[in-house]
Amino acid sequence: MRIYDIAFYVAGFFILGVLAASSGSNFAVIMTATILLVAIFLLIGYLRKIPKIFWLTSLSLFIIIGAFYYFWWSNYQINNLKIVFNEKINFQGMVVKNPEQGSQQKLVIELQPPYAGKILIKLQSYPSFDYGDLINFEGVIKMPGPADYTNYLAKDGVFGTADYPKTQLIAKNQGSTVKSSLFKLKKGLISNFQKTLSAEKSAFLSGITLGERTEFSQEFKDAMSKSGTTHLVALSGYNISVIVLAVFVFLNYFLPRRLTFILTILAIFGFVLMTGAEASVVRAAIMGFIALLASQVGRLYSVRNAIVLAAFFMVLLNPRVLYFDIGFQLSFAALLGIVYLSPAIQKFFKMKEEEGFLGWRKNFLTTTSAQLGVAPLLIINFNQFSLTALLANVLILEVIPPTMFLGFLLGTIGFFSTVLAVILGWFTNLFLVYESTLINIFAKISLPITKIGISGIIIYYLIMVGFIVYNCRDVKH
């Protein structure tokens, strides 16, 4: 077996073990199932005399290693916590993430000695706090509550919550200077949007360029959900993979392919820095890079390993993301759709290789394959997937790259000239009006699918796999 095949199966079996453990299976059950799988491989290898099967026999033991790693990681996190629950206490903590602002504040703080661990704190919107603030609190720390919410917070290392404790600022700028500067830059850009655009349009532009959604009205959030366009303002691999490919297509009209590839990678890096280099954004950028690599290399076999190894290293750093982070799942489902479904759809419809005017053909393939890849996950987690979302996204994604370009240009110029920013804001507003109008229209004509069972999911993905195998059976990897 070749080395890249060994790497693929090691990573794949390890991930399978983590998945089994995080889904609630105990270690004894996982070991028994793995031993049964080994026996099946041995039997097939003996009967069919296939050397590769004997390799799989030994490599499948990484399922046990993956499960053991998940249980060890979970116990390690718990054993290093020092949190007093359900008692009124004084405690200090430093804000370690950019706070969520809006009708209330949400702070993720790192407890200071004699306590240890991260907790989520809800506060009134004023006085506002920033990343790196060291604060004294007086209140009650509670367990997060229902199992789903507990696991959701635990994936980010958060194991407690406190609602509206008394606060007293001790010191500012106690965190990373680089992260603090990046968050301030993000605030400055949003402020420049607000100076030149209406509240609704500035909020929408902040979402498209920086993933900031705190100023969205509930009505607009509902419209995006119904139209299937929420990903446009979510810093996930699902969003960035589509946008990065659109940027690549756009630049490729004017520049050589190699230079376009390099500039797009730089754009990804700049985007990560611009949004504060949070873990979720880094993950999304990796997904966008792999999707771009698939377009550049054009070899599914190479990309197969890149995807699995990317997932392996992310799971190695935090095994909880595999089962409890919907953003992680959407990232990979969308990426797999883009990489594998896109060429199958292109061949099925006998579409030309040319990307079409403004890259519409490429956007259609990218959007359709990504949407089909994530459809069951959206139905399960958000109880809705719109059949009209494909058309909505194709029409909107055509203008997302210039909107992002104008948005970043507007935000930058706003630091130097308000007059120029206002002029540029007028042009940017044209794109935003077009996009928001389409979102509202498609929200009204939405054709939602709201339910799908486990059997339905299995059948759905089996059909997708069959479709890919049938249409790409002659593709050389």
Approximate shape:
globular
Order of helices and strands: HHHHEEEEHEEHHHHHHHHHHEHHHEH
Contiguous low-pLDDT stretches (5 residues minimum) are none
| Main beta-sheet strand count, sense and barrel state | 6 strands, mixed
| Continuous helix count | 19
Radius of gyration: 24 Å
In percent terms, what proportion of residues is strand?
A: 5-15%
Number of domains: 3
**Record field, number of beta strands:** 8
Spatial sequence of strands, sheet with the most strands: 5-3-2-1-4-6
Residue share in helix? 55-70%
Termini Cα gap: 16 Å
Mean of residue pLDDT?
A: 82
Structure class: alpha+beta
Report on this structure.
The structure is a single chain. With 477 residues, this protein is α+β, with helices and mostly antiparallel strands. The protein folds into 3 domains: 3-78, no CATH class; 88-174, OB fold (Dihydrolipoamide Acetyltransferase, E2P) (Beta Barrel), CATH 2.40.50; 185-471, no CATH class. The protein is 65% helix and 10% strand. It has 19 helices and 8 strands. A 6-stranded mixed sheet has the order 5-3-2-1-4-6. Strand 1 (88-95) and strand 2 (104-111) form a beta hairpin. It is globular and about 75 Å long. The model has no long low-confidence stretch (mean pLDDT 82).
Keywords:
alpha+beta, OB fold (Dihydrolipoamide Acetyltransferase, E2P), 6-stranded mixed sheet, 19 helices, 8 strands
